[in-house]
Amino acid sequence: MTQAVATNDRATTFDVAAVRADFPILARNVHKKPLVYLDNAASSQKPRQVIEAVDQYYRRHNANVHRGLHTLSDEATAAYEAAREKVRGFINAAEIAEVIFTKGTTEAINLVAASYGRAHLSAGDEVLITYMEHHSNIVPWQMICEQTGAVLRVCPINERGELLLDAFEKLLSDKTRVVAFNHISNALGTVNPVKKMVKMAHAVGAVTVVDGAQAVPHQRIDVRDLDCDFYAFSGHKMFAPTGIGILYGKRYLLEQMPPYQGGGDMIKTVSFEKTVYNELPSKFEAGTPIIAGAVGLGAAVDYLERVGLDAVSAYEHSLLEYGDQRLKSVPGLRMIGDAVDKTSVFSFVMEGAHPHDIGTILSHTGVAVRTGHHCTEPLMKFFKVPGTVRASLAFYNTREEIDQLVDGLAKVREMLL
To answer: Among 1, 145, 374, 388, which is disulfide-ready with 187 (CB 3.0 to 4.6 Å)?
Structure first.
């Protein structure tokens, strides 16, 4: 399964067979068929290197972090903070103080909305989001707007699933305080021009919040180059355990924000009269953290660095082009989201077949896809569909698996149409 892809005018060989060997779950059968896992936008599978790192932590180093004076606590603390440094380097943050461990993208966005939003928004201020946002980048801002009197604005998209930048620019004003948008749409695969959008938002003095959950597994992220103010992502989308994620924030913004939660480790001193909060990043990490998850995230970063995100991006782009060609040949299939700049997601409907029925039949052929609104109900309403079938790629997928998806859709037509 060694497949050649072209990138930057040179041929790069990506050994997908070697990569697949690192993921134990890919060897199993489902309904007596080899598993074809195409639900990576929902959650990725885990390589043995991550599984073994978590296992090793629990077998040899398990203890609470930061306050213990014994050996296990020292080892756990070292592993936890080493993972933070790995993430810092992975996204090119300026310092570890700007890397906050959270439960995932959802909690990271809620942290910014509740802490920064509550402290900085007031009646008449505006928060700008886009039509293609995940519910996790809609609902927190609705909640804060209701509490503060701020107004939520929404930037439209076109029929291809691309942001209308002219409209985006017109919606920006001296009332805009926060601009929140995804880097890559989870439902469409559209890649937004983040750097340009950040610059436009900064021109009116707005703070930017980027949902990077779908971008981090597929391309190299440099938060300093993007110049975004906040960037959120989840471990489980990038081959790490569930329950761990990251909020990156510029230090000067994090310093002016009140804590999101109160409790242990986010304090320096506590008395009944006054509490003095801890320094960054501890100020935003109340209570016992997700230590094993952080260790697993660090191992996932190591794994992605070893495989090489540039090679991953090039290989996945070749799969995207192949899959797009194959799927568009399926009779009655309509692609939802056909942006010029997109990655790793095929979202579609089929005439005469409900997405849930398609997903069920595909599962019985061994093919795992996601069906429904993908936590993007407003986006589904825009396209006038109840939901879609979403097949989403990772670097362990192959052309043969895309062929199996297409064969499965032929079975759908045979049974339903």
So the answer is: 374
Query: Which domain covers residue 346, as residue numbers?
Result: 2-30+308-416
Residue where a domain terminates, one of 290, 305, 320: 305
**In whole angstroms, what is the distance from residue 297 CA to residue 101 CA?**
10
Q: Is the pLDDT of residue 10 over 50?
A: no
Same domain, 291 and 371: no
pLDDT at 5 > cutoff 60 = no
Helix 71-91 to helix 291-307 angle (10° resolution) is 40
Asked if the bond preceding 289 is cis, omega within 30° of 0, the reply is: no
Q: pLDDT for 329-352, tens place per residue?
A: 999 999 999 999 999 999 999 999
- Tally the domains of the chain: 2
- For 171-185, write each residue's pLDDT tens digit: 999 999 999 999 999
Residue 35 lies in a domain: no
**Residues with catalytic function:** 375
Q: Look at residues 251, 278, 305 and tell me which one is the last residue of a structural domain.
A: 305
- CATH label of the domain that carries residue 145: 3.40.640.10
For tokens 């090793």, name the residue: 56
23: CB partners within 8 A, 6+ apart: 45, 46, 47, 48, 396
Do the Cβ atoms of 240 and 50 come closer than 8 Å?
yes
Q: What percent of the chain has pLDDT over 90?
A: 95
For residues 174 and 248, give the distance between their C-alpha atoms in angstroms, rounded to a whole number.
25
